[in-house]
Amino acid sequence: MELQLFGINHKTSNISEREKFIINESNQILLDNHLKKLFKNDLDSFFGISTCNRTEIYIVGKAEISKKVFKETTKILKIKDISKDSFYFLSNHDALVHMCKVASGIDSQVLGEQEIFGQFKAALKNARQHNILKSKLSYLSDKVIEISKKARSQTGIGLNSLSVSGLALSLIKNIFENPENQNVLIVGAGSLAQNIIENLYKKGIHNIKSVNRTPKIIKLENGLEVISTSLESLHDELKISDIVISSSSSEIPLIGKGSIENALYVRKNKPILLIDLGVPRNIEEEIRNIEQAYLYSIDDIEKITQENYGQRSIEAEKAMNLIVIEAKEALESFSSKTSKDKIKIQL
Predict the structure, then answer these.
(1) What is the pTM of this model?
(2) How far from 142 is each of 34, 57, 145, 342, CA to CA, in Å?
(3) Which residue of 29, 72, 73, 299 is surrounded by the most CB atoms within 10 Å?
(4) Which helix (H) or strand (E) element contains residue 9?
(5) Residue-level pLDDT at 347
(6) In angstroms, rounded to a whole number, what is the distance separating the alpha carbons of residues 223 and 250?
């Protein structure tokens, strides 16, 4: 049994490809049932993660099984129109190093961003809750968290770290001279939406409304609350919103070209900024063709600011060196542990 992975990310593909390959709670359970029946003892366990930058599946199984799992995954999830060249396959030390790079933020589109660490832990927790994860992959995944923490604490990669929500705020500040005077609409009510709202509040931007599939109370650090309304109010809210930031997990676009054209008509063509952080995308791409509507996707956001990139690159190299050494030790420990378990079974 060895550690393997395959995936697709911002380095190998664009958002139009990444949004076609998403691992969520329901399809991961479906995939788990299928793979266990098909591969039996050749596959120990797996789990997947999907973020705005990537979708990856981590595996402990028989050597080279990742290629077979990939083939079955594309069938079950009906993945089409993505070139196989967009996917990468790694095993053993390379796989563990990559997982640590992902969790620590040094493989992110925004170098050093901190949100991925929480997303990795959440994906791991979800796999455990659904009994998808077994002891071997669980052990290695815990090592990933341990090594990633060390990489961020013992190097400067985590200092003044950026985030997707922080970059969205930077874009707003670049475009609007007085962003505190603008009406902001947040679509979605997950952890990213909450981070965005908290960042906006800290910068004095308080004219914020939220819409979500179901009404939800979003509690902020300062004790304030933002109460989201249902999606039924979305089109009405667009008419009075100067800035729209969307981070919903919807599988289909929530904001279409027609709704923006209608909103601009009511607004008498007052411009509207739309920031789409959803993968799959929440806002139709065709909106880019509308005058007075300015749409930015997650791939556009990263290009807006490269603040302190040089220093972060230096710290990322330090973190990488630490990860390579720690990953080697972790795999040696894993091999030793696995060998002892085999001896116990034989006895």
Answers:
(1) 0.82
(2) 26, 16, 5, 21
(3) 73
(4) strand 2-9
(5) 31
(6) 29
Residue 112 φ/ψ region, left for φ over 0, alpha for ψ in the -120 to 50 degree band, beta for the rest: left
Give the type of residue at 335: S
d(CA 43, CA 181): 56
Nearest Cα to Cα of residue 12 among 107, 151, 153:
107
pLDDT, tens only, 183-196: 999 998 888 888 88
Report the half-sphere exposure of 115 (CA within 13 A, side-chain side): 20
| DSSP per-residue letters across 106-132 | TTSSSTT-SHHHHHHHHHHHHHHHTT-
CA–CA distance, 320 with 268 (Å, rounded to integer)? 52
- Smallest Cα–Cα separation from 249: which of 187, 206, 194? 187
With the CA atoms of 344, 140, 94 and 2 taken in that order, what torsion angle do they form, in degrees rounded to the nearest 10?
30
Contact by Cβ (8 Å): 3, 96 = yes
Mean pLDDT of 19-48: 91
**Tokens describing residue 123:** 């994906």
How does residue 160 score in pLDDT terms, banded at 50, 70 and 90?
low
What's the pLDDT score for residue 62?
93
DSSP 133-186: --HHHHHHHHHHHHHHHHHHHHSGGGTT---HHHHHHHHHHHH-SSGGGS-EEE
Q: Find, among 209, 217, 205, the residue nearest to 238 by Cα.
A: 209
Taking alpha carbons only, the member of 182, 185, 187 closest to residue 204 is 182
Helix 191-202 / helix 115-129 crossing angle, nearest 10 deg:
150
Which residues are CB-contacts of 307 (< 8 A; sequence separation ≥ 6)?
A: 162, 170
CA dihedral angle for residue 172, residue 173, residue 178, residue 183, rounded to 10 degrees:
20
**What tokens appear for 309 in the block?**
């990139």
| Angle, CA of 225, 181 and 187, to the nearest 5° | 50
